[in-house]
């Protein structure tokens, strides 16, 4: 087998990335539309948050198995299998919604949770496969830029989806939006059929971890646990994911407490430009030489942005705060992802990344379950006129609908700042790049699939 040329590797990455970009937009459309439908038809933050729970829980449970399969199988075929399964979940949602819109049955939220969960089961394969493939294709000095392109694709979906879905809901309905998602998924699968991924070289660590499926799953965790810097980074990112998940769940009911659904879509799209800008900045800049400074520093920016939620309710104020919060996400994530990709052998990245993803994915289901009760039972009553905090915190932030959620965002901002401070005070985290040797081989050792 011949050596994979640099230009061919870049072409493969870009073709695959374009397919992912299109798929992110379609997934964003259906995700926003489904969540909005559940919230508007139920008026319940808890039921709304259960859409996130149904999406993240299967990925949490299946991530270790997915990682082992990624390292065993051709990663392009893994991504194709993932797309087929996600498509089945979306198709099932469309059948339920279309039948409900046609009057054949009453659409129940519980059935939608099941179809969302079906797609999520297969989505567990996609992330570790593509993240591990990025390190296969891109040279080490350009990994942060490549990761920023992945964040850019996600940010584009964040910007386009709310405005487009909000406009389309009244014209083609939820079923029409789900059909668009199926179309974009087909285009993403087509991009995968145009390329072949290189085969990762075998490392000593990876070879020792081969064996039964259960043994391979455990290998990923043992690799992380034996390296305190990576373990501390994992804890840091898990807490960051928890705050992010809570913010994303709470943003919709907070905005709808003082504005309408159309304005919500515009607000989420404009603030989502922060994610796009952060990705562009990292793509041009490439990030700091010490990636850990980018991880911690941009996390601080996110925490300060959330504290701005204490200001009076206004679309511009909330949009600006969320803009800078989302700006911090791709910048922090790109730096963290590059650290993982450079310190983990290529033939172990599927297992290690899947375990990392499993631990990090504990956050969204917890956020989905906790957001509703925290807001509805505690923070909102506390900040209602005559509530427990109306005469103290309420004098500063105001009282009434949405003010309790705003206070909860302030608390999350403080948690972020504490997380950043403790990470910087941890030598294992602060010196992770110097303490661990790079694991990436020379580009000439990478070979295409036969």
Your description of this structure?
The structure is a single chain. This protein is mainly alpha-helical. The protein has one domain: MFS general substrate transporter like domains (Growth Hormone, Chain: A, Up-down Bundle), CATH 1.20.1250.20. Helix content is 79%, strand content 1%. It is built from 18 helices and two strands. It has helices at residues 6-42, 45-72, 75-101, 109-137, 143-169, 173-193, 204-208, 213-225, 228-256, 261-285, 291-307, 315-343, 349-360, 363-382, 393-397, 403-424, 427-430, 432-435; strands spanning 198-199, 447-448. Strands 1-2 form a two-stranded antiparallel sheet. Helix 9 runs antiparallel to helix 12 (315-343). The termini are close together. The mean pLDDT is 86.
Keywords:
450 residues, mainly alpha, Growth Hormone, Chain: A, two-stranded antiparallel sheet, 2 strands, 79% helix
